[in-house]
Amino acid sequence: MNAPTGALPERLRATLRADIQGMHAYAVQPSAGLIKLDAMENPFALPSELQAELGRRLGAVAIHRYPGARIDDLKAALARHIGLPAGCALMLGNGSDELIALLAMACDLPGAKILAPLPGFVMYEMSAKLQGLGFVGVPLTADFELDGAAMLAAIRTHRPAITYLAYPNNPTANLFDDSVIDAIVDAVGEQGGLVVFDEAYQPFAARSRLAQAGRRDHVLVMRTLSKFGLAGIRLGYLVGPAALIAELDKVRPPYNVSVLNAEAALFALEHADEYARQAALLRAERERLLVTLAALPGVQRVWPSEANMILIRVADAASTFAGMKRSGVLIKNVSALHPLLANCLRLTVGTPEENACMIEALAAAAA
What we know:
Elements lengths: L9 H4 L4 H4 L13 E2 L11 H12 L9 H14 L5 E6 L1 H12 L6 E6 L3 H10 L2 E6 L8 H11 L3 E5 L11 H14 L2 E5 L11 H4 L5 E6 L1 H5 L5 E6 H7 L10 H12 L1 H23 L4 E4 L6 E6 L2 H10 L2 E2 L1 E2 L10 E5 L3 H15 L1
Parallel strand pairs: 1-11, 3-4, 3-5, 5-6, 6-7
Antiparallel strand pairs: 2-8, 7-8, 9-10, 10-13, 12-13
């Protein structure tokens, strides 16, 4: 048997898709020893008494059995928590990433395409490519607003099976104009496609599109518990008309959510007041940061935020990122993701202490 090496053997290259061999995997930055403000995680741990209670709950879970009725309990708890619109159902995923992949799989008809504004969440395009679908990216305006005319033209031309609208958007952190969104929803509906509102950052946003999932038969709303405070358990959910969810659920792998993840999520929902308190603290910190960043020398622009992240522009993103990392603060340099993001950095809103360190490091690195 040949020993593994760092390069794929030539005799195996014909077995794997050439387009996959040419792709880059989703990159996660090493963060050991750094203040981690690069991935929009909730920085607050549970109070010690709740940690102990959660440990007891997880210790009693029947991990020798496949997930069963407890998954239905979780779906019912989520439905109560969000106020599931009448006529809607929900579907669970191993994080929103799995739901995005399953949507691409369910809509994989010859010539099907996925459309999304750019810059946006990279998994929309990656899921399309992995499933062999076409991807159409429509640039936002210079102020990161939807280009309504360009979006409508792209919908007419490409008739996308799925149109993603992140609400708020990642990495720009803004909510798009509702009148433009309404026109897009109507246009996609007329073409027979689906609109998916990605509300990953809903705990920090002033508005939601959840109610629309109960009023339009082609509208879905996707959320995650990652920003709620449970990034480590990987749980997302998709809400939409019951008939549509029933069809999409057919492509979901059996037992895709573990009993440990389900129990942790149920526990969190039972203590939703604690997570709501944490979200309120982060929203207050976000507003304080927006003011502080706007007055910071070296920061050229700060965009408004409806998420737990803030997008800024500096003179030299690469140099500023490296300088902050040397100071022990890890953020995200998004400047290479799209031309509109030239010299932009994305900052996660952390604890007050973390934010103070971030501001100090940014001031020194951007000066």
